[in-house]
Amino acid sequence: MYRERVFVTRKIPGNGLAMLREAGFEVDVSSKDRPLSKQELIKALRKKPYDAVLSLLTDQIDAEVFDAAPTVKIVANYAIGFNNIDLAEAKRRGVFVTNTPGGGADRVTEHTWGLILALTCRIVEGDNFVRRGKYKGWDPMIFHGIKLAGKTFGIIGTGRIGADVARRAARGFEMKVIYYDIVRNDALEKDFGAAFKRTAEEVLREADIVSIHVPLTKETTHLLGSERLAMMKRGAFLVNTSRGKVIDEAALVEALRTGKIAGAGLDVFEKEPKFAKGLTKLPNVVLTPHIASATKEARFDMARMAAENIIAALAGKTPPNAVQI
Ligand code: GLV
């Protein structure tokens, strides 16, 4: 009997791999505890006629990689985003591409709010101050943050995560919400009084806090460069839990240095795991290592979804989270 083969580009948490083995597949997991280079991935895929690849967001799956795996029927990305996969190439070859929305996406909302609160309540700066032995007693002059209620919260991108972040701004923090997206979100307007702006620029000009929730595409690459950053209100805050390349990081460092932007909360970076020069030296940033979806529940959920996608595709069905055929 034919046994389908699955290549997993890196060890993942949860029982997704057990599900694949229980389904009768031969499962090979990269033995390296790090992302594979493209050449390593190509070499690994050439070893056997694989039927499926379970990939991570750190794998660049392009034409050369597809060429090395002509028998593959599905690339199941273990991520919410899928900008690391060349969708046009997948389509040309009739390969399914899937992602793992759901639990992980909910967690991104919470992490986004964690960054916002850390910035506006100055939690990381205050923590450093205490640890460095600088706290000598209550002082009305130190660490003034900003109050959220009544301020304007600007969202760029109101898909599942953006809309959820907006909902918490309106409901949880009593903020006025404005948003821009290429499609209008009637529910957001009706349910939370969010105001649609016809351009991203309008959101940037009016918001006290801007949060980015767009997928990375050709159009959104450097969506926020020096020109658009200059449009932001002086003293506004910027948060990004989407993809690093959406912001020109060097331009952001400059805007943070001059105080044009009061602070930034970043979970993603333009050239991960590297940072633009000077970014990590700034006091007015809160930086996390691309962990916005990192809860045990979310990671397990993502493993289950990736496995279900592969099982469905190899049974000749359309996988539940197909973003491409
Ligand atoms: C994380 O960035 C993801 O896309 O899951």
What Rg, in angstroms, do the CA atoms define?
Answer: 22 Å
Name of the CATH class of the largest domain = Alpha Beta
CATH-defined architecture of the largest domain: 3-Layer(aba) Sandwich
- The CATH fourth-level homologous superfamily of the largest domain: NAD(P)-binding Rossmann-like Domain
Total beta strand runs: 13
How many strands, which pairing sense, and closed or not: the largest β-sheet?
Answer: 7 strands, parallel
Question: How many discrete structural domains?
Answer: 2
In spatial order, strands of the major sheet run 8-7-6-9-10-11-12
Which series of helices and strands comes N to C? EHEHEHEHEHHEHEHEHEHEHEEHE
Report the average pLDDT across residues: 97
Structural class computed from helices and strand pairing: alpha/beta
What shape does the CA trace take?
A: elongated
Ranges where pLDDT stays below 50 over 5 or more residues in a row are none
- Predict the CATH topology of the largest domain: Rossmann fold
Number of helices: 12
* Separation of the first and last Cα atoms: 27 Å
Classify the beta-strand content into a percent band.
15-25%
Bound compounds, each kind once, are: glyoxylic acid
Helix content: 25-40%
